[in-house]
Every structure is written in C-alpha cells, then in structure tokens.
User: Fold this.
Amino acid sequence: MIRKTIACILLGLPLLASAAGGGGHIQHVNADISNEAAVQRGAKYYVNYCLGCHSAQYVRYNRLALDLELTEDQLVENLMFTGERPHDTMENAIPSTDSANWFGRTPPDLSLTARARGDDWVYSFLKSFYVDPTKPTGVNNLVLEGASMPHVLWELQGIQKAVYRTDLDAEGHPHEVFDHFELVQPGAMTPEQFDVMVQDLTTFLTYISEPVQLKRQSLGIKVILFLVVLFLFAFLYKKELWKDVH
Ligand code: HEC
Assistant:
C-alpha cells in the first residue's frame, strides 16, 4: 500500500510539472541565484519593466539591499523611484480594480510565480510573445495561450511572428503545429542580449520566490558534513566498545 502510494506520487510529479502548461514550448534556463550580478540586473529590470503592473508583496526593499549587498544609497538610486521607504514591500502602482478593467485580468503578484510555475516556464513565457492581430493586446503567447499581458519588452526583443508547419496526425490528417519564431522587426537588443536579459529577470524572480534558498543549501551541506563526521566517530566508538567481545 505504502509502496503504491509512493509510486503514485513519484509518477504524478512529472505530470504535475507538465500541467503548468506550455505545450512543449518550454526552454531551459540557468537561473543561478548565486550569481549576484545577475540578480541585481534582474531586480533593476523588474522595477523598470514589471513593477508598474506586478507587485512582489513578500519582498521588502531593505531585505533586497541586504541580500544583494547594496548600500541604502544604491538601493534608492537603482530600485526605488517613487518615494517608497526601505522597509516597504514591492507594491505596484495601479489599484487592482483598474488593472482588471484594463487587462481583463489583474496582473498577478509575482513573489512566488517562479516557484509555482518553474523558472523554465517563466523564461519561456517572457520569450514567447508573438503578433496576433485578433488579440486586444496585438500579441498572443505560445506558452500561455490568450495571455492578457501585453508584450512589454517588445522594444528590446523586437516583434516576432509564429511560423507553423503542417504535420500529419496519427490518422494521417494534416494539422498545423508551431515550428519556430521569426523576428519580423528587430528590437534594441540582439536575440543573444535579450536572452541574457530574460535570464536575469528569471533569476531575480527565482531569488524572490525563495530568498533563503542559498542559505538553505549551504546549511544543508554543513549538516551533511556534520553527519559524516559524527558517523565516523560513532563507528570508531562502536569498534572500541566491541573489540573485546568478539
Ligand atoms: C501592462 C501591465 C503588465 C506589465 C508591465 C507586465 N505584466 Fe506580466 N502580466 C500582466 C497581466 C495582465 C498578466 C495576466 C495574464 C493572464 O493570465 O492572462 C500577466 C502575467 C504574467 C506572468 C504569468 C503569471 C502566471 O503565473 O500566470 C508572468 C510570469 C509575468 N506576467 C511576468 C512579467 C514580467 C517579468 C514583467 C516585466 C518584464 C511583466 N510581467 C510586466 C500584465 C503586465
């Protein structure tokens, strides 16, 4: 019974992960939160391009400063533009009722998104906006079909369109599947620069979704080392105790 339950959980995990959606258009990202420079750049992009709509209600500016090793002056200069105080949380500017009217959906708080969706999902989502004149925002998103978020980074990424190819399904009927994106209007960044920017943003979102992650990992290593040493002494002690019995 127990074995069955464990097997179900283990088998269910990948299903759960894929239930986050994306239809197989998920790209891998290396969101390394120990890369402080990347988290700092991501924080700056977040404040400039995202905070207008998305709050990060569990993040305090002074906690950010502490973790990112910024002085209070650097904090105010780089991340705080609208007169917040250092102990404030990252609130957005628009009241949620207004934003729901504007976008059809209130932009969700992003404090925990990277954990809920996964960093690969967030990275792919931000790179998957494509032109779709039938949508009110003029764009659609391959990873989140019908997303009501506008393509806020279009000036940097440029504008891309989705190119489809025709495949045959199991019964031999032709159907369209996504093939690749084609840049129809280049942005201010090259695709490589844009990839790094989105990686930085994802790294920042990953960091805020679990700020203690780094500490937890280093603590984990210490605990394991301690257990190894403890085992060694326990083993030697046991040998000592039993040496006359045999
Ligand atoms: C103009 C307002 C606006 C701005 C600016 C904006 N977003 Fe959004 N965002 C939205 C809305 C609205 C949604 C909800 C989309 C939906 O579910 O249809 C959304 C959804 C998302 C989601 C999906 C969350 C989820 O779990 O479904 C992510 C991730 C996200 N935004 C990231 C960002 C990032 C990163 C930036 C900055 C580069 C940004 N957004 C800037 C309006 C905005």
Q: What stands out?
A: Confidence is low (pLDDT under 50) at residues 14-21. The pocket of heme C is lined by residues 49-50, 52-54, 103, 105, 107-108, 110, 113, 117, 122, 125-126, 147-150, 152-153, 201 (CB under 6 Å). Residues 56 and 110 are 5 Å apart (CA to CA).
